[in-house]
Structures are given as structure tokens and as C-alpha cells.
From TrEMBL:
Organism: Aureimonas jatrophae
Protein family according to the UniProt entry: Belongs to the ABC transporter superfamily.
Keyword Cell membrane: yes
Keyword annotations from UniProtKB, A to Z: ATP-binding, Cell membrane, Membrane, Nucleotide-binding, Transport
Main localization, broad class: membrane
Protein name: Dipeptide transport system ATP-binding protein
GO molecular function, one term: ATP hydrolysis activity
Top-level taxonomy: Bacteria, Pseudomonadati, Pseudomonadota, Alphaproteobacteria, Hyphomicrobiales
Coiled-coil residue spans: none
Stored InterPro entries: AAA+_ATPase (IPR003593), ABC_Ni/Peptide_Import (IPR050388), ABC_transporter-like_ATP-bd (IPR003439), ABC_transporter-like_CS (IPR017871), Oligopep_ABC_C (IPR013563), P-loop_NTPase (IPR027417)
Length: 284
């Protein structure tokens, strides 16, 4: 049985011109021990769909689904209290932009141990020991001293590692990583990706990687869901997607990769889609 199964997920927001569907009829699943990449350009609904699963969207959002099943429990049917027991413990999420996601008013140690207090009920000494263990696990140097640091006293890469430590603190069964390498330099990106995949393998977690970077997809994923304007365009294992993309939008994304450039500049996704439409029309 799949770890997480989503059927017909729709997320709409009220706007001045009427309801806007950020996610439109999304189906997906992820298995234990699997890395699923959700890929698409900015605004395609990748993050919104997973925030809906976590129950973290504002009240202004209208969320509907035929099924949001996590390990045999339908998250639509359980109480808010039951959901809070699951979210942050069994399902965890690493958010975009760690410098903005961490609270600047509290130390790294406080923010990390709060998760352990709420979900595991550990005592003060146990929480501190576990926090040091987690910071060590994610490669933070001098972890005991770093517990008293504030986010602004750490680099972007270190803050991202702290966010990962918070994500794995309660040994979740499913970890959602939302653009985990955004705004990091190339060297740090590689370290963070290696860290995430290593933790996923050692803990046996399911991992959902939200990204617009096809290089990240190629390096980390087993299976890929391609989204465009809130809809799923294609789903395939990673090798099939790169070698035999079926959907025009997927082909457009791949054509926009630097290694696939054939002229002086990369074509936009829109240009590739227009070219494919023209070719299809000529064939008719």
C-alpha cells in the first residue's frame, strides 16, 4: 500500500475576478522508501498542493479531494487535533527559504527542541541531547554551541541544514522538501541534496522533492510528476521521463535545459509549446 495517496485534489482561492484554481484535480502517490519529484515552473501549484496535504493553507483557500490517504488514514476525515499529531511528526515539511522560515526571535536550539517537546514529550535534557544529535547528523559544526545561535548568525546553507534537522527530528515516515536548494550556491546545493537522499535512505522515509530544477530531478528521484497550471501533465519513472517524454509541456521543460540548447539562447517553454503546436498542425 502507498504511504500517501492523493486523488482529485483541488485548491482554489477567491480573487476579484472569481475563484482561481491553484491545483486542479491532482492525483499522485508516494511509496515508503521512494523519492518522488514534483516538477514544474513557478506558479504551477507544486507547493500549494503539498501545503494542502499538511493542512497549512489559510482559511481563504478551498480544498477538496476524493481522497488524501496517509497510511490508511484519510486526512480529510480526521479531527484537527488528530491531524496536528500527524503533521510535524509522521509527515514533515522543509519549507522554502530557510532564512525566512526560521523565527529570527528564537534560538536554533529553542526552535528545534520545541518540535521534540510537542510531538515526543521529551524532558529538557533529552531534548537538548537529541537536538545536538540532529545537528551533528545534518553536518552542523560544533552543534552544542550552535544551539544558542540565532538564524541571522548562521549562513543560508547552515539554516537549511537546521530546517532539515527539524524535519527529521521525530523520524517522519514522509518528508516533503520544498525547493530545498533555492538561493544556495552550487557547492552547497550538492551537499544538501546528498544529505537529504542519504537521510531518506538511512531512515527508509518516503521523500517528496518539490523543484523546478530538472537537474535535481535527474540526480535524486525515482519517479516524477510534472505539473503545469495546477494540473498533472505527466507521471513517469525518471529514466523514461528524460528519454521518452510524452507530454508537450514535459518536452518543453527538457528543451529549455542548457545542455539541450541549439542556438544562441535557450527557447522559453512557451516558444517550445508553440513550435510543437505548429508542427502538429502542419502534420494534420
Amino acid at each position: 500500500m502507498a504511504l500517501l495517496t492523493i486523488r482529485n485534489l483541488t485548491v482554489a482561492f477567491d480573487t476579484a475576478s472569481g475563484p482561481f484554481k491553484a491545483v486542479d484535480g491532482l492525483d499522485l502517490h508516494v511509496d515508503r522508501g521512494e523519492v518522488l519529484a514534483i516538477v514544474g515552473e513557478s506558479g504551477s501549484g507544486k507547493s500549494v498542493g503539498m501545503l494542502a496535504v499538511m493542512g497549512l493553507l489559510p482559511a481563504t483557500a478551498t480544498v477538496t479531494a476524493d481522497l488524501i490517504d496517509f497510511e490508511g488514514r484519510d486526512l480529510r476525515a480526521i479531527s484537527a487535533k488528530e491531524r496536528r499529531r500527524i503533521v510535524g511528526k509522521d509527515i514533515a515539511m522543509i519549507f522554502q527559504e530557510p532564512m525566512a522560515s526560521l523565527n529570527p526571535c528564537f534560538t536554533v536550539g529553542y526552535q528545534l527542541t520545541e518540535t521534540l517537546r510537542v510531538h515526543l514529550g521529551l524532558g529538557r535534557r533529552e531534548r537538548r541531547d537529541r537536538a545536538v544529535e540532529l545537528l551533528t547528523q545534518v553536518g552542523i559544526p560544533d552543534p552544542a554551541a550552535r544551539l544558542s545561535s540565532y538564524p541571522h548568525q548562521m549562513s543560508g546553507g547552515q539554516c537549511q541544514r537546521v530546517m532539515i534537522a527539524m524535519g527529521i527530528a521525530c523520524n517522519p515516515q514522509l518528508l516533503i522538501a520544498d525547493e530545498p536548494t533555492t538561493a544556495l550556491d552550487v557547492t552547497i546545493q550538492k551537499q544538501i541534496l546528498d544529505l537529504l537522499v542519504g537521510l531518506q535512505q538511512s531512515h527508509g522515509m518516503g521523500l517528496i522533492m518539490i523543484t523546478h530544477d530538472m537537474g535535481v530531478v535527474a540526480e535524486t528521484a525515482h519517479r516524477v510528476v510534472v505539473q503545469y497550471k495546477g494540473r498533472k501533465m505527466e507521471e513517469a519513472n525518471v529514466l523514461d521521463l528524460f528519454e521518452h517524454p510524452k507530454n508537450p509541456y514535459t518536452r518543453a521543460l527538457l528543451s529549455a535545459l542548457p545542455e539541450n540548447a541549439t542556438g544562441d539562447r535557450l527557447p522559453t517553454v512557451g516558444e517550445v509549446l508553440a513550435r510543437e503546436a505548429a508542427s502538429a498542425g502542419a502534420a494534420l
